[in-house]
């Protein structure tokens, strides 16, 4: 098992390239199930979650090859096979194969994802939507089985905005007979990217990026060559890194229009963020002068829950008190106990974290508990005095491509080492 050794306190400088968005790549990979032939996806990050989705698709008979950031998926000889527990348990986004499989084959069997470190994360809305489209859903021995001769268009209202739920339903509806309307659809840029790629395949989707999406089903879709959007959460993570270390960096290959809430809030803390021709120029304020700020996590275009942990790490050293309210997941404060080990002053009551800024953090051995929690420990460690050892960084490897290389290139003191077996 790998760990990261970080010695904090260094000013960073230079440029960093943002990778393709994990949460856009995963649904796009699943969407290849909908058509026969070879789809080429570009700007795909080299991450553990991408490998897991490749395994899920390969297990169904897809031929997959990867070169650099270019992933080729040939679904010509796909067979109707389940997404097994062994893979789904390692990545719940495997459930994104449910909608496309039932749409293409009239039958899908996917292991029901359990809860995870950040919350219970049910998929009732995915199932409700498929039922509305005429699928018969049964749950048996830990698996969801969905059957339908051909799905038919329906009006589906989601009482909670769900990202992968909207994506699953949109993919299923693309091959359904008739028109589907998803109301209170998720508006995240990753949902819009999926809609754009499905339209390139021949689907008829309007409204993606808004809360009502209309999908007119078509009889078949064709393979495409498509470049996915950059990762807005990785971009936000690098802004907090520059902010907490008082650094001046240029963040390249990012989309400022996907970053509005993040940029606004981070500017409030005193970080200067300006658009330049080839990226975002980020300049952190001198040590001790970060301002506190309050956030409430919300579906897009609000402040994303996937940036909450990194934001907390940042305001741990602000000159004042920040209030953070997590409204999306019920257990997404696992990083707080670890940040406290580094000297942070944070109190949690229900879903509210009160972060009282301290003068500085001190390096300590800490444990990564989930993907974004791990990122917050990297942010904190880069500003802390002395060495921090972050254990269990396989969580980080699920969502950040070559993070230690990117940070070292900026001048950060970060090393990956193998942990000795206990
Ligand atoms: N929910 C339900 N029923 C459902 C679906 C969702 O009650 O059927 C609830 C969830 O429990 C949660 C809320 O709705 O309280 C929103 O969850 P959502 O379904 O939007 O989350 P998700 O689709 O499972 C995606 C990202 C997450 C990100 C969330 C929120 C992917 C592969 N994952 O998850 O990313 O936190 O949206 O934006 O797109 C990450 O990258 O670290 C990560 C966890």
Care to describe what's here?
It is a single chain. With 422 residues, the chain is α+β, with helices and mostly antiparallel strands. It folds into 2 domains: 2-19 and 230-418, Enolpyruvate transferase domain (UDP-n-acetylglucosamine1-carboxyvinyl-transferase, Chain); 22-219, Enolpyruvate transferase domain (UDP-n-acetylglucosamine1-carboxyvinyl-transferase, Chain). 31% of the residues lie in helices and 25% in strands. It is built from 14 helices and 23 strands. The chain has helices at residues 22-31, 48-59, 85-88, 98-105, 124-132, 163-174, 189-200, 232-245, 260-268, 308-315, 334-341, 371-383, 394-397, 403-409, and strands spanning 2-7, 13-17, 38-42, 63-67, 70-74, 107-111, 136-140, 143-147, 155-157, 179-183, 204-206, 212-216, 225-227, 248-252, 272-276, 279-283, 295-296, 321-325, 345-349, 352-356, 365-367, 387-391, 413-418. The strands form 6 sheets. A 4-stranded mixed β-sheet has the order 21-22-1-23, covered by helices on one side. Helix 6 (163-174) packs parallel to helix 7. The protein is elongated, with a radius of gyration of 21 Å. The N and C termini lie close together (11 Å). The mean pLDDT is 96. The structure holds uridine-diphosphate-2(N-acetylglucosaminyl) butyric acid. Uridine-diphosphate-2(N-acetylglucosaminyl) butyric acid is lined by residues 23, 26, 93, 119, 121-126, 160, 162-165, 186, 190, 304-306, 328-329, 371-372, 399. Uridine-diphosphate-2(N-acetylglucosaminyl) butyric acid binds next to helix 1, helix 5, helix 6 and helix 12.
């Amino acid at each position: 098992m790998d760990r990261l050794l970080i010695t904090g306190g260094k000013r960073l400088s230079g440029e960093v390239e943002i990778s393709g968005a994990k949460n856009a790549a995963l649904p796009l990979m699943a969407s290849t199930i909908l058509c026969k032939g070879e789809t080429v996806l570009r700007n795909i990050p080299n991450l553990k979650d991408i490998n897991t989705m490749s395994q899920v698709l390969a297990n169904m008979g897809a031929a997959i090859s990867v070169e650099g950031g270019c992933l080729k998926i040939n679904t010509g000889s796909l067979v109707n096979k389940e997404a097994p527990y062994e893979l789904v348990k390692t990545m719940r986004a495997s459930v994104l194969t449910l909608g496309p499989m039932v749409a293409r084959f009239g039958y899908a069997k996917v292991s029901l994802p359990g809860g995870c470190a950040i919350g219970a994360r049910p998929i009732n809305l995915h199932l409700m939507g498929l039922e509305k489209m005429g699928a018969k859903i049964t749950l048996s021995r830990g698996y969801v089985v969905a059957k339908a001769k051909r799905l038919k268009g329906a009006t589906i209202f989601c009482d909670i905005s769900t990202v992968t739920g909207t994506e699953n339903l949109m993919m299923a509806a693309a091959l359904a007979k008739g028109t589907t309307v998803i109301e209170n659809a998720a508006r995240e840029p990753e949902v819009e990217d999926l809609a754009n790629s499905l339209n390139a395949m021949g689907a008829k989707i309007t409204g993606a990026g808004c809360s009502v999406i209309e999908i007119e089903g078509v009889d078949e879709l064709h393979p495409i060559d498509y470049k996915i959007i950059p990762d807005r959460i990785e971009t936000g993570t690098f802004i907090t890194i520059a902010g907490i270390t008082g650094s001046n960096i240029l963040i390249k290959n990012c989309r400022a229009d996907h970053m509005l809430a993040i940029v606004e809030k981070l500017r409030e803390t005193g970080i200067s963020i300006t658009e330049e021709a080839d990226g975002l120029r980020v300049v952190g304020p001198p040590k001790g002068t970060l301002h506190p700020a309050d956030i409430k996590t919300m579906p897009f275009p609000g402040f994303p829950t996937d940036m909450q942990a990194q934001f907390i790490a940042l305001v741990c050293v602000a000159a004042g008190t920040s209030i953070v309210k997590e409204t999306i997941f019920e257990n997404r404060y696992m990083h707080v106990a670890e940040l406290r080990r580094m000297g942070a002053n944070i109190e949690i009551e229900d879903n509210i974290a009160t972060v009282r800024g301290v003068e500085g953090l001190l390096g300590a051995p800490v444990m990564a508990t989930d993907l974004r929690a791990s990122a917050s420990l990297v942010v904190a460690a880069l500003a802390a005095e002395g060495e921090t050892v972050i254990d269990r960084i396989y969580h980080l490897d699920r969502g950040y491509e070559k993070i230690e290389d990117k940070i070292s290139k900026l001048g950060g003191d970060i090393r990956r080492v193998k942990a000795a077996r206990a």
